[in-house]
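Quick one: structure tokens for this chain, please?
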Amino acid sequence: MSIFGTLLSYFAPQQIADAAALQQFIESRSAYLVQKSITEYTQARAGMLFSTMMREPIFLEGYEKARWHSFPAAISMMTEMVEGTVRERESAAAGSLDAALMRIVEAILAQYPVPSGLGEAFWRGAADRVARDLAQAALGPPKPVQGIPLFRVKEIFDALPVNDYLKQHDFPMFSNTIRFHLTELKVEFEEKAAFPELKRVLSA
């Protein structure tokens, strides 16, 4: 299975009311967040050369590695957004949704082989980091959605397949792009989520 094959089911399901639908949403939108932000930035930097670069094996290797490397950070952002939105909408106790959300995260990550060159402990470390991010989020009220990416967006930026010198002034712009897209995804989640049902599922 391809990590970005999940984008094929981007518009389904229409309602998010159970664990399976929530897993599909978190997985596909995390892939979308990574794919869109990396591609938009790389296209902007490369300009008319982008299509040529996408045929170069060395660039494609870096491009693919950047997407895999960034996937856990995107999952963390999406999971915290979901947790904070459900908690706020349904007055759920801080931390009460985390165990069920981590089962969903573990199920997502278990589907994929270890990415080449990223080490056997890559997915285990990714899951542990999401758990820490959720635990930290539980220490206070849900963050505004624009604030969620600030803790992990630099991981994605640092992995971009662009020379460090060329991108040295671009972090604020890239960070704002991630924040914008995550805000869009929160709006979609609010439109499709059946919040009382999700609270029951995630509190079980």
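Residues 16-203 form one domain.
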